[in-house]
């Protein structure tokens, strides 16, 4: 249980359901009930930003290439993004939140944490507030949201994803331990496919399995993240809902099951990591002037290299090409790599919509057609 000044906190995580695609289906009757992808193109270029639930049934997912999406769902409809419409809907959602609390931490246009420990309307029940918010979003905006309710951010966020779409999951104080014990390791924050596979190779499949390890054992096996795992498997998450979050940098990294020793393997991993970075930039509506490459060698020594542009960038081609160029300037002779990461920083204009579509040479995440 998380407490603030002796009071058990009441945290709600709201996550809109297939947000961009749902806005498009709401505004265009021809798209309703059909598999659509926001972003990408029928030419096979670009990546999917959001797929409707009809498309997800075929396996189409965010950050997937258009070509792959068409292979899985030949009749998919590609829709050119309308960020102004998404921003307008997001502002309306935020206004609904503000009826209940001012302690709101937006994570992107389509999700946010709310601290309703003390709510404006004196409702007292976080579950009731979440129900009212969902109902207002549906009746006023004709969109659906999923909500997770608990005493800390970690559990609330995972809970919101359990019964999507249009779900509501409450994990009360007495249920947290059992909930985390049964949670698959891949559901834990920061556990990607490689780390999950590593855990499973150690016969660590659930939170209960991780809980058997001491803090020192977790740190030895997973580095500094082990400190986080030790706390979170015990339901401890002391992070507060932050009303003012200035993003300094945004990126992704991965530790590999086997050390990489060829440039081809490293380029392949950078392509994969780059897709994750671009998807996160897209969700946060950010573009950065500085691309940073992070490398950790098998001996655990770590270096970073960066390159800055005169204008913000956010497209996949520029980001991955820059990372590969930075990698090419590093001495890799007789060295193997256990981790690679790409991040963007030095953010300029927070709205990248005009840049993304105004300069086809610079930004090519979504291709016009």
UniProtKB/TrEMBL annotation:
GO BP of this protein: DNA repair; DNA-templated DNA replication; error-prone translesion synthesis; SOS response
Cofactor: binding comment: Binds 2 magnesium ions per subunit.
Marked site positions, Substrate discrimination: 20
EC number annotated for this UniProt entry: 2.7.7.7
Active site: 111
Cellular localisation: Cytoplasm
GO terms for cellular component: cytosol
One Pfam family named in its UniProt record: IMS_HHH_1
InterPro entries: DNA/RNA_pol_sf, DNA_pol_Y-fam_lit_finger_sf, DNA_pol_Y-fam_little_finger, DNA_polymerase-Y, DNApol_IV, IMS_HHH_1, Rev_trsase/Diguanyl_cyclase, UmuC
Residue ranges occupied by any UmuC domain in the UniProt entry: 11-192
Catalytic class of the enzyme: transferase
Molecular function terms, GO-annotated: damaged DNA binding; DNA-directed DNA polymerase activity; magnesium ion binding
CDD domains: PolY_Pol_IV_kappa
Cofactor(s) it depends on: Mg(2+)
Entry keyword set: Cytoplasm, DNA damage, DNA repair, DNA replication, DNA-binding, DNA-directed DNA polymerase, Magnesium, Metal-binding, Mutator protein, Nucleotidyltransferase, Transferase
Ligand binding (Mg(2+)): 15, 110
Reaction catalysed by this enzyme: DNA(n) + a 2'-deoxyribonucleoside 5'-triphosphate = DNA(n+1) + diphosphate
Quaternary state and interactors: Monomer.
Protein name: DNA polymerase IV
Species of provenance: Dyadobacter psychrotolerans
């Amino acid at each position: 249980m998380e407490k603030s000044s002796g009071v058990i906190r009441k945290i709600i995580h709201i996550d809109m359901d297939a947000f961009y695609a749902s806005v498009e289906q709401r505004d265009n009757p021809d798209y309703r009930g059909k598999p659509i992808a926001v972003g990408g193109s029928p030419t096979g270029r670009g990546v999917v930003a959001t797929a409707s639930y009809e498309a997800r049934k075929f396996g189409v997912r965010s950050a997937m290439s258009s070509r792959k999406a068409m292979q899985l769902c030949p009749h998919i409809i590609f829709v050119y993004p309308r960020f102004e419409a998404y921003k307008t809907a997001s502002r309306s959602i935020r206004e609904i939140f503000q009826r209940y609390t001012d302690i709101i931490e937006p994570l992107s246009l389509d999700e946010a944490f709310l601290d309703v420990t003390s709510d404006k309307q004196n409702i007292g029940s976080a579950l009731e507030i979440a129900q009212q918010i969902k109902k207002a979003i549906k009746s006023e905006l004709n969109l659906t949201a999923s909500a997770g309710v608990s005493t800390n951010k970690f559990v609330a966020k995972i809970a919101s994803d359990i019964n999507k779409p249009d779900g509501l999951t409450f994990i009360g104080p007495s249920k947290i331990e059992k909930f985390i014990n049964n949670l698959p390791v891949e559901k834990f924050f920061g556990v990607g496919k490689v780390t999950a596979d590593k855990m499973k190779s150690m016969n660590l499949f659930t939170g209960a399995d991780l809980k058997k390890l001491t803090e020192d054992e977790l740190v030895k096996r997973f580095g500094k993240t082990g400190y986080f795992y030790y706390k979170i498997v015990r339901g401890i998450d002391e992070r507060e809902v932050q009303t003012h979050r200035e993003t300094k940098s945004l990126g992704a990294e991965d530790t590999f099951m086997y050390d990489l020793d060829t440039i081809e393997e490293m380029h392949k991993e950078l392509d994969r990591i780059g897709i994750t970075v671009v998807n996160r930039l897209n969700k946060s509506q950010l573009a950065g002037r500085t691309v940073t490459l992070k490398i950790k060698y098998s001996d655990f020594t770590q270096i970073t290299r960066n390159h800055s542009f005169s204008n913000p960038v956010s497209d996949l081609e520029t980001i991955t090409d820059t990372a590969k160029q930075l990698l090419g300037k590093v001495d890799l002779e007789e060295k193997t790599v256990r981790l690679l990461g790409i991040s963007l920083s030095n953010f300029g204009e927070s709205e990248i919509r005009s840049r993304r579509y105004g300069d086809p040479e610079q930004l090519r995440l979504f291709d016009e057609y």
